[in-house]
Request: fold
Amino acid sequence: MKSTLFASTLTAALTATSFGQVEVFPRGECCNFPWDTNWDGTTLSFYQPLECSGYTRWDFYVDEETTVTYQVDWLPCGSIPLVDSPLGFVGPFATIEAAWFAQGGPPTWSGTFTLEPGLYENIYFAEFQGTLTFGSGCEAGTDTDGDGVDDCDDGCPEDPFKSAPGDCGCGVEDLDSDKDGVADCNDGCPTDPNKTDPGTCGCGVSDEDSDGDGSPECIDNCPDDPNKSEPGNCGCGVPETDVFGDLDCDGDYDIDDIRLGMTTFGIEEA
Reply:
């Protein structure tokens, strides 16, 4: 038997587009209790605040706080799968799509209805069987930030300077002051074109290590001596040579070195 769906303009102010599944209880034996309303960011749940008996049509309503009342006639007990919108943004308006599917087949009828906050209108179902699919969308012709891009197509609908988040996100300019290819919002040295991180020497100072000793020149007091980063007693370029406990900076033994060596080996002076 062919099922028919009738619907009028709906009303809603959805703030997210990721949906899960909603349990559906039609009028009759499955529906003689109140339904609860829940919105946890992934699942939109509906409730029926009135007694189910005595109603020939049921209403669908979503207010600006996403409080939902959903009533439907002639649906089997079970679940309504809710699908993600292909659009990643929903403003203070949305659309809802209702479709009838033959069991195991593609939809044979569907309709999309504009949702505007603050009104109360009805959706009617007659002999409806199958899957009801909802998808949120966006109303064309609304440009909240006045940048010439409809909110439907604007990734930053409240930022008049951007229509996509870019590197820095909505409300933050993707400025690159030093022209190094990294936006200031992600650049640890936004005015240094040669660095994006302060490193050891800080912004504006190169971390160059010309002698390759592992100490950049900004902290290397012997920048041309690969063996020393401090002058020590002998100075840069001169090793700190220890001869039997006596410091020898020129590489030649002096009288003190000779005497120390004699003492070490038990040789007495004549």
User: Anything to note?
Assistant: The radius of gyration is 39 Å.
